[in-house]
Amino acid sequence: MRNGSIFDADLLNAHYSPRIYAYYFKQWEEFQMAFHQHDSTEIMYVIHGECLVEWDGEAGKQDKVRLTKGEFILLDSNVPHRLIVEHTCRMLNVEFGFTTHTGGFPSIKQVADEEETLRAMVASPVSYLKLQDPDEVYHCLKALVLELDERGNDGGMLDRMLLSQLLIRISRLRREAEKNRWQQAEHYVKTSIEFMYQNYDRNILVQEIASFVILHPGYLQRIFKAQTGQTLMEYLTAIRMEKAKMLLLHTDIQVADISDYVGIGSRQYFHALFKKHSKLTPIEFRNSMNTHRYLELRSEDF
Question: Do 174 and 276 belong to one domain?
Fold first, then answer.
């Protein structure tokens, strides 16, 4: 058990209680912190102003996220990070972890067994969560801090109750944020597909589709693959092949010209793609369909 991580699977298999290690309000003015890390999970809540939180990701790659009033970041334990304040920022920071459960109040496992959103959050490890607070989290944080101040940070039962409530609130916000992101992703994917159907006859690239929906190409590729199971170009190729079949079946356009109608400049490449998708060359497809229709007409005569 890594005592400080909220994303430790042991929390769902054994009994542990949450515990606050540190908490403080702080007004930051034009400040740049050195990289550091904690054995505990940290919540950094912006009361007013804004800041940047930068951390070291996988393979030494650095990344950062901007926080403004009413936003907070939940940062996993042992993630090297630093705070950058360009102007001014007032924050409330809370660092917490977990200790062996001693009874008197449900363990995190028992709470997660009843609260599916908390179980899902614990079971989905990430370096951080950035969330927008509708004041629910801040009220929980203030109540927790007031109780800690009153009791002298001795880890009483109410402290554990309030911290468990805080984690439930955060897990529900996480679920809602994921739901909203999925709905937004659906919109972007649908708009991208509409764009491809309206422009399949041109030589369009991923960058052009991404520009149309106003998203970074890499991000659009990720959400498109997640929702359709295909890349943008794979989906576009499938559209083009279906349009080619329609043109071969229902028009007299020369086979050699079909590639231009579906946005594939190279006839040789078009033939290769078509055979890959239909197991027939364009000529074989047209002839087989014509033969099939002829046999259908002959059968009607009898």
Answer: no
